Amino acid sequence: MSILIKNGTIVTATDQYIGDVFVEGEKITTIGSALTMPADRVIDATGKYVLPGGIDVHTHIDMPFGGTTSADDFESGTIAAAFGGTTTIVDFAIQYRGETLHHAFDTWSKKAEGKAAIDYGFHMIITELSDQVEEEMDAMVRQGVSSFKLFMAYPGVFMLDDASIFRAMLRTGKNGGTICMHAENGGVIDVLVKKALAEGKTAPKYHALTRPARAEGEAAHRAIALAEIADVPVYIVHLSSTEALEQVVEARDRGLPAFAETCPQYLFLSEDNYDEPDFGGAKYVMSPPLRARGTQERLWRGLAFNDLQAIATDHCPFCMKEKHLGDGDFSKIPNGAPGVETRMSLVYDGGVRTGRISMNRFVELTSTSPAKIFGMFPKKGTIAPGSDADIVIFDPEKTTTLSAKTHHMKVDYNPYEGRQVTGVTETVLSRGKVIIDAGKFTGRAGAGSFLKRAARS
Ligand code: URP
Ligand code: ZN
Ligand code: ZN
């Protein structure tokens, strides 16, 4: 199968020009102007952007959490991702206590195989460390799971103590992996949560009030300090606050390999959302929580100036029925919100169209930079001969309204309900196959492959 995409505005992290892209099989083979080679299909992209497929390096598909499971499985989650212009996800496999990393890898592989419609990789969440687990960490890196998520929060569930965190960092410093850190001080938060509940403060908004930004800043500081001693790159996931951002800026100014992502929810929503009536604030119960509205501009500046290197989603949807597990006790509301489908349009509309970031930076933040940080570049993350033909044809003029009535994520609310965005994914290729065509899914559940990610060289 060959496809010729003609006259689009091709954008990478560094270039923008009008040209043609020729795809043969799974790869981009030629880029030029006025290409004339015969093709099985010709797509006219005049007036549209031709972008590398979006890469979302933070999803929780089919994830058990808080007595329930996140709503999307690998079929619905990856199809929704594709509709939104994302062609690769990196999901989090979880090692539960008493289990091996291999078991976690097998469990998540079974969830994805035969279901994923786009390519996927895994980070490994480590919740218990032993000599055997340390050895398994090396094996994981060799088999393409080259990043480990550690938690400084959720005591008794995911949280690791500092000694275990440090041991995992030392090992990762040697085996070529990268540490992803959930940076919130779980001990402090636990005390604040217990105190709030004892005072009868049970509504969803107390989720945010018991997770102060300073507790994120403190943990980010500690994570970076431990990573510096262990000599390992650290990537702070779902960074939400100025306090945490300041720590990343300080570390990067000193030349440390400290990286961080933020997520659309921290750029477009705020703590005000917790005041929505009728338990509506529960839709936004996620960790870290939404912050003061003023934080948004600071995060945008961080994105523009490379203090932040990626925008991922932390897609972790729960239907309202599940959110109601926390009726009368905010600490029992499953943490997480949907977002895998809405990221590209939101960031284009709120970032590029407002002049906060350039078009090249948009591509860099949503595709190229996560591909580089997590060992997928140049197979993924750019439009270049030899790269996978993961391509998004994006209409910069089309406007759509985000809504649970029309989205493809298997969740009964949309955090951006009713929001109009301009900039919409029109056509999507995944390794050379058209999987979104004129608003319809034309791919296949199970066509996505496990992506073996490289270690640091
Ligand atoms: O609230 C969140 N973020 N849920 C998903 C788990 C995590 O910490 O990333
Ligand atoms: Zn987290
Ligand atoms: Zn997450």
Give descriptors for this structure:
457 residues; alpha/beta; Urease, subunit C, domain 1; TIM Barrel; eight-stranded parallel sheet; 13 helices; 19 strands; binds N-(aminocarbonyl)-beta-alanine
Task: Please characterize this protein's 3D structure.
- The protein is of the alpha/beta class and 457 residues long.
- The protein has 2 domains: 2-51 and 382-441, Urease, subunit C, domain 1 (Roll), CATH 2.30.40; 53-373, Metal-dependent hydrolases (TIM Barrel).
- It is 31% helix and 24% strand.
- The protein has helices at 74-83, 101-112, 131-142, 162-175, 186-198, 205-209, 213-230, 242-253, 264-268, 295-304, 320-323, 343-352, 359-373, and strands at 2-11, 16-24, 27-32, 41-44, 49-52, 54-59, 64-65, 68-69, 86-95, 119-126, 147-151, 178-182, 234-236, 258-262, 310-311, 391-401, 420-430, 433-437, 440-441.
- Strands 1, 2, 3, 4, 5, 16, 17, 18 and 19 form a 9-stranded mixed β-sheet that branches. An 8-stranded parallel β-sheet has the order 6-9-10-11-12-13-14-15. A two-stranded antiparallel sheet has the order 7-8.
- The model has no long low-confidence stretch (mean pLDDT 98).
- Bound molecules: N-(aminocarbonyl)-beta-alanine and zinc ion (ZN) (2 copies).
